[in-house]
Structure formats: structure tokens, C-alpha cells
Amino acid sequence: MREKKTGISNTGLKLLSVLLSILLWFFVIGQGELSLKQNQLEVELNYKNLANNLSIEGPRTVTVRVWGLFRESQQITASVDLSNRGEGNYNLPVKVEPVSGALITTVNPDKIMVSLKKLGENLLPINHQLINKPPAGYQLLGVVLSPEKCLIKGDQNQISRVTQVVCPVNLADVTEVKNFTAGLEARDSKGNQVSGVELLPNTVQVYAVVQHNKTSRELPVKVLLVGELGTEYELGQVTVEPELATVLGDENLVKQMDNLETSKINVSGHTESYTQEVKITVPEGAKVYPEKVLVMIEIRKLTAGEE
User: What are phi and psi of 216, to 5 degrees?
Assistant: First the structure.
């Protein structure tokens, strides 16, 4: 009878073992990329409860040895608690949160040295720096930055090195008014970039005004008269004030001009000398100063012998 019971018991254990193996196989297959093994992972280190007026220097990662079922290192949380810590140096423990389906075996290092320093801040104006000028034939009329000032935050020693905040501006392809975003750089008195500080904001809006190269010339004003006087009258002296005017415009256009002309003055029907204010005409895109001139027109009556 005892031998019979032993045989039944062994058979039952074998069946149970096979069943558990099948269940385990289905479980592992159902986990997709999950693996049941030991791994050494580099995990990002989180610093918790850091006071707002402090900056921290310390390791950014720790090495965690894990055995079990897991997908990736992001599932593991490693942290250091900085509660009630003021300025100074501390040797603090690293805490790793439990992970479902995995066993954390070691953390290296399990304690880390951190340095807490007081944050400083400084407000500086933002200056632009041309790294590329406009294309040939164009000139920059002005650059406006918005905002005009930048708040620098960080370790006080680093902040004290910053003497200027610079916005590098590239206008190599700009031929008109353009608005774009550009980054900022913190620099020392020698123009070198200063790292380890925070810029608020770290970008600005740049408004650049670019146009064709402009030049100016002073040119004589030529009066244009049209129409005819009556047979009893003749045209005398025609004078203009001022005799010269300044034209401003595209360099190539202005260089080709020899004089400036007034708008047409019709003398038909006039029997006496008169003065008239007229505009100076200029090509499109050019400007003239003054825009108007006074033209004095002398009209003389012919004598009987002159007719």
C-alpha cells in the first residue's frame, strides 16, 4: 500500500511541475521584450527638495545592479533627499525605489558627495553682435531686440564673471525688414562664453531693417516749362530757389542722375511775371530735400517794334 501511495504522489508532482513550466513559459512569452536576468544599468540621479536659493554640484548618474523582469533603465528611480540642507558640502545616501518584478541588488555609489551653493542673479542689457553682414549692395539701418534685458541666475562666482549678454545676429541672407528668433550668450570681459549660468530669457526676438545701399548727392534743379505765351509776350528770366536740392536713393540710381527736374509749369495764358511753388520729381524709391522749390517766371510784353 505504501508503494502505491508513493507512485501516485510522484505522478502528481510531475504533472504539477509540467503545468508550472507551461504557465511560466506563457508568462515570459506574454511579456514581450521582458527578460529574466541580472543587469547593470546607469540610472539618472534625481535631487529632491532642493531649496530655491541654492544650486547643486554632484554626480548625475549612479550604477544600479538589477535582477528580474524589467524593460529599461527609466523604470528605475534613484534619488537623493536634500530636505533642510543649506549651503555646504554633504555626503548623502542614494535611495532607489522598488521596481515591480525586479530585485535591486546594489547601488554604486550608495552615498555621494554634493556641494550646495547660494544662487545669485544679475540683470544686464542685451547687445547684438553682427556675425554676418547683409549681402553686397545692402546696408543695415537698425537692429531692435525684444526684450532688451536679461536676468542671469546661478552660482555667484560664475555670475560675477559675466560682464555682457550678447545676441549673435546673422544677416547674410537678409535684404529687407525681417523678424526672427536668436539665442543669447553670457560672456566675460574678454568675450569668452561663461558656462554654468542660466539666462532668462535665453532667446530674444530680433527686428532687423535692411535696404539697398543709399547715397545722397546735391544736384541742380531744372525747371520744366510747357505751353506758349501770346504773340504779344515773351519769356524773360526764369529763376528757382533753391537752385540745388539733395537727392537720397539707391547708390546706382543716384550716380546716374545729372539734375533734378520740377513738375511741369504751364505758362499758357499768363501775361505778367509770377512766382509758383512746384514739386521736384524723383524716381520711385528716391527722396529729395527740399521736396518743393519756388520758381520765378518773368513775362515781358513786346513793344511794337519787337512784334
Answer: -130, 150
pLDDT at 232 over 50: yes
Of residues 185, 184, 208, 204, the one with CA closest to residue 133: 208
Q: List the domains of the chain with CATH numbers.
A: 32-109 (2.170.120.30), 119-212 (2.170.120.40), 214-301 (2.170.120.40)
Query: Which among 145, 144, 192, 143 has a CA at the least distance from the CA of 164?
Result: 192
Q: Which residue has the cell 512766382?
A: 275
Query: What is the per-residue pLDDT across 39-94, written as a single tens digit (0 to 9) for each?
Result: 778 888 999 998 887 878 899 999 888 776 655 656 788 899 999 998 889 999 99
| 51 in Cβ contact with 62 (< 8 Å) | no
With a cut of 50, say whether residue 1 has pLDDT above it: no
Mean pLDDT of 221-250: 92
Separation CA 139–CA 305 (nearest Å):
63
Which residue do the cell numbers 511753388 mark?
277
Strand order in the sheet with 178-183: 138-146, 203-212, 178-183
Strands 164-170 and 111-132: parallel
Torsion angle, CA of 8/13/19/21, rounded to 10 degrees? -150
Kindly provide the residue ranges of all beta strands, DSSP E only, lying in 72-177, ordered along the sequence.
78-81, 88-93, 95-96, 102-108, 111-132, 138-146, 149-155, 164-170
Residue 186 CA to residue 125 CA, distance in Å, equals 11
Inter-residue contact 292 to 279 (CB < 8 Å): yes
Measured in degrees and rounded to the nearest 5, phi and psi for residue 300 equal -115, 145
Which CA distances in Å does 148 have to 71, 193, 201? 48, 19, 10
Q: Does 19 score more than 50 pLDDT? A: yes
With 0-12 / 13-18 / 19 or more C-beta atoms within 10 angstroms meaning exposed / middle / buried, residue 188 is: middle
Looking at the DSSP assignment, which residues form a beta bridge with residue 279? Answer: 292
